[in-house]
Amino acid sequence: MPALLCAMTGLIAAMGLSLFGWMESIHQGLESAVMADPIAVSEPWIIPIEVQWGLSLVASILTSMFTLMSSGLLRRAFVLLMALISLVGFSMSCVLWNVLWLAHLELVSVVWAWVCSAVYAAQHKMPCDDVQVVLRKERVQLDVNI
After folding, report:
1. By the 8 A CB rule, do 103 and 88 touch?
2. Domain presence at residue 134
3. Residues 46-81: tens digit of each pLDDT
4. Closest by alpha carbon to 13, among 81, 97, 104?
5. Fewest beta carbons within 10 Å, which of 24, 71, 123, 135?
6. What is d(CA 67, CA 63) in angstroms, rounded to the nearest whole number?
7. DSSP 8-state symbol, 128
8. Residue 54 forms part of a structural domain
């Protein structure tokens, strides 16, 4: 349940920024950069905003779940790093297929969901924090007399 709530806050933050038009300048800047000379995508297929909101929800839920299932701040930061690398990498690979998917909404959603999840995990005792590995050191005698 906490993962879903954290993911929904990330989605609502991204949707709010999108609906109020605060992400429009970022979208236009990224679009002009993709259309520029090094990449030069000609007439790409643009992903609709509703699909981006759905992808934001999925990415936020996964990030929140993996963050809450990880113990320690460094592992949680590693979850954020892997989510960001995956989103940016997949966005750039879509450009190769002439699909313009600018992942700025998903990035905002994932980062905010991760922040909420990390704060929640820091304030509550998570089940993954209690796991202790105990190795028993026993001597095993093998009988080699055959």
Report:
1. yes
2. no
3. 888 888 888 899 999 999 999 999 888 899 999 999
4. 104
5. 135
6. 6
7. G
8. yes
CA distance 30 to 87: 15
Say how many domains are in the chain. 1
Q: Is the pLDDT assigned to residue 31 strictly greater than 70?
A: yes
Could you list the residue range(s) of the whole structural domain that residue 98 is in? 2-129
User: How is residue 53 written in tokens?
Assistant: 């909101």
Burial of 19 (0-12, 13-18, 19+ CB in 10 A): exposed
Residue 10: C-alpha distances to residues 72, 113, 141 (Å): 21, 5, 57
Beta strands in the chain (DSSP E): 45-46, 99-100
Q: Considering the domain boundaries, does residue 146 fall inside one?
A: no
Q: Classify residue 6: in a domain, yes or no.
A: yes
Q: Tens digits of per-residue pLDDT, 111-135?
A: 999 999 999 998 887 777 776 666 6
Buried b (16+ CB within 10 A) or exposed e, 117-135: bbebbeeeebeeeeeeeee
